[in-house]
Design a protein that fits this description.
The chain is mainly α and 294 residues long. It contains 11 helices and 4 strands. The strands form 2 sheets. Strands 1-2 form a two-stranded antiparallel sheet. A two-stranded antiparallel ribbon has the order 3-4. Strand 1 and strand 2 form a beta hairpin. The relative contact order is 0.21.
Amino acid sequence: MDEIFGIPAPLLFGQLLLGLINGAFYAMLSLGLAVIFGLLNIVNMTHGALFMMGAFAAWMLLNYLGLGYWWAMLIAPLAIGAFGMVLEKLFISRLYKLDHLYGLLLTFGLALVIEGVFRNYYGSSGLPYRIPSELQGAWDLGFMFMPVYRGWVVVAALFFCLATWLVIEKTRLGAYLRAATENAPLVQAFGVNVPRMVTLTYGGGVALAALAGVLAAPIYSVNPQMGTNLIIVVFAVVVIGGMGSILGSVITGFTLGLIEGLTKVFWPEASATVIFVIMAIVLLARPAGLFGRA
């Protein structure tokens, strides 16, 4: 298997793998955005900054406390999720009855503040984070070498996305969440503490972003701009999948990552814009998104 469609096989499959990895991060970040928008109706512009905080939390745990990658997978989402709940209680909860634009502006401002604080202390250059020893090396697939860690990122992202979908769609907690999006006063009348559930939901969406940041730390350099580079594409993914659609976010994230990878092979000049072209076409044909409801 030397060439496929005139393209060297290692190049084609390498770009597909890169697209699948990018798609894994698109899926996890858009999933968190969809969860938050589905219940809170907040367009959460801080999501990229919180993704960056997850990567920095992993770096700090390793360099300041000597706690490695596996500890970071546990501690960073919990810590950043708790930070997200504080943000929700102090700032975002005050805007639920106002126009969506206020939430957008507030979260955008919070993102700038968070990014500015990290840039002030750590600069703009990237900080390295080593791959754990258990996930180093590569598998020889015959037609290409696949780094073990990159394969792990794809599998882990699929697992966490599926677990989140199962919780929301197949559990009693998920039923309460979905009911609260339709009629919060009625759910509260049945004894459910809706404000607490909203805060926990926001924290859960933030924890997903932080977890994606931990997964990204060994691949991308840990820097204050790493969330900014992804968040605009992730918003496009959410719009294409359908605002608030959990399944749409996951499927669209992985699919668009693959499309982006293929575009880099066959038409490199269009790789930076292909997702936004798809978004424009989808909005013209189906304004609610591929999996969204009008």
